[in-house]
Amino acid sequence: MGSQAESPMALRRLGPIELFSSARHYMRLYLSVTVTCRYNAPTSGQGIDESLLYPALTRVVSAQPMLRVGILGEDTSKAAFCHIKTIHLANHVSFETLDGCETVDQYNEHIASQQGWHHSQPWLNIQDVPPWRIAVVKPSPAATGELSRVQEIIFSFHHALLDGNSGKLFHENLLKELNHQLGQGAANTTTTTTATLQFPDAPRLPEAQDQIIAFQNSPWYLVKTLWNELGPPMLRAKKHIPWHSKPSDFSIPYVTLTKAVDFQGPIVAKLLKACRQHGTTITGLFHALAAASLASRLPAGEASSFAASTPISLRPFLGPAADPEFKQSLRVLVTSQEHQFPAPLVARLRTSKDADQSIWETAQRVKGELNRKVASVPKDDINGLMKYNSDWIGYFKKKDGQPRPDSWEVSNIGVFANPPEEAGFAVSRVCFTNGALVTGSPLALGLGSVAGGLLSVGISWQESVVGQEFIDGLAGDLTEFVTRFNETGKFVV
């Protein structure tokens, strides 16, 4: 056993939303978030190798405190971020060249398989090694056409460190540094490819979100929420349980699978225009399309109603106490909004002669709920109550065998904007997925897009909780809805 002097130094306790994720990781109920970007090289054959990546990654890690910390006491309610003085990049970076990927579809399928694998790996030795990793994947050297100039960088991370928007921000920073390194030429690479980084001084960390967002909960909200969570079951109003595939089951092996559906830039532009005309957003629309798909695939007796959730970034709501130094830092700043799709609405999606009208009305409904939520933040937000839970591990243990709260989640990390310079690498695809939610939605849709380019919808689910055939059907429906809309202006014939 090491001496006290050799133990990592605690920096600050995890905040409530961070403890929420650390408990889930400890219990193997949710392991990571993953954001994968496709990097297009300026010329065919220009690859991202160690000599280019390591100096660029060093600058990103050096600038981002949350990439330089571990977690102490994850099995307790007093978990803390800790100072890690030495980071070996080889512990965080891998390179892979694929064989047999001759088409973009085959390449995408392999990337989806890799993405699921990363979601399924627990973080080890997190008191000594920061829990994040990147994998650089490229097609076979024999690949031609579009594939001859692309590489994927899969960035996976513990959710207590960062949120989905931070995953996109990481890639934006890495792209900038890769292009900076590219501009340096070969002259400096011999002295800048250090694989071991030293950080002798403890970093200042971004504040926990409850310290810098002034959550205010009315007495009514406080009492109602705590009663619904903690009140005697016989005295609580009976909750209607929406379709949720299967109850939470901690005995099922934690294996996340992912599948992505891509939509080309011109089609995305047409969807955006239509969303504006109908008073909704891409997020609202994909909630509605998911509802329409599931309504068509599940019988009314099995799925009379649905429920869903939307994570919402809290970055725009930082209060005056927030340190401006951390405004663009990678961190966790997130809340969520629930959506109910009651039986009459779902019945209309199943039987309506004007299915398109029902889809747009559903998308508008979601957008209205999100608008009201955003307008009310930071009042009556569940994050303001999380501090009252002193035992998240105990909280989650009670979820085993219980119905899941909702049917799906749609999370949108927004638009990736490439820098204006023409030279250098550019990102052409953003695929974002959550790990399988053992105590949450049985399936999740992650939206990520590139300005003027692809919109990628990453679907993730837990193996054996939702079947592959069911997911393939959902993915096929989304493709068919959007393709038909592009051709005819209608989602459904």
Structure notes:
The structure is a single chain. The chain has 493 residues and is an alpha+beta fold. It has a domain at 10-198: Chloramphenicol Acetyltransferase, CATH 3.30.559. Helix content is 34%, strand content 21%. It contains 13 helices and 16 strands. The protein has helices spanning 16-26, 50-63, 104-119, 164-184, 189-192, 209-212, 219-230, 265-277, 282-297, 343-351, 355-376, 392-397, 468-488; strands spanning 10-13, 33-40, 69-72, 80-83, 86-88, 93-97, 132-138, 150-157, 196-198, 256-263, 306-313, 334-341, 408-416, 426-434, 443-450, 455-462. The strands form four sheets. A six-stranded mixed β-sheet has the order 10-16-15-13-11-12, with helices on both faces. A five-stranded mixed β-sheet has the order 6-7-8-2-14, sandwiched between helices. Strand 15 (443-450) and strand 16 form a beta hairpin. Helix 2 (50-63) packs across helix 4 (164-184), helix 9 crosses helix 11 and helix 10 packs antiparallel against helix 11. The longest helix is centred in the C-terminal third of the chain and has 22 residues, at 355-376. The chain starts with 9 loop residues before the first strand and ends in a 5-residue tail after the last helix. Mean pLDDT is 93; it is low at 1-5 and 186-192. Pfam families: AATase. This is Alcohol acetyltransferase. GO terms for molecular function: N-acetyltransferase activity.
> Portion of residues in helices?
25-40%
Q: What topology, given as strand order, has the largest sheet?
A: 10-16-15-13-11-12
Shape: globular
The name of the CATH topology of the domain at 10-198 is Chloramphenicol Acetyltransferase
Integer-rounded radius of gyration: 23 Å
Total DSSP E strands: 16
Number of helical regions: 13
Q: Give a quick account of the main beta sheet: strands, pairing sense, barrel closure.
A: 6 strands, mixed
Overall SS class: alpha+beta
Q: What is the chain-wise order of helices and strands? A: EHEHEEEEHEEHHEHHEHHEEHHHEEEEH
Q: For the record, give the distance between the C-alpha atoms at the N and C termini, rounded to a whole number.
A: 69 Å
Oligomer state equals single chain
Round the mean pLDDT to the nearest integer and report it. Answer: 93
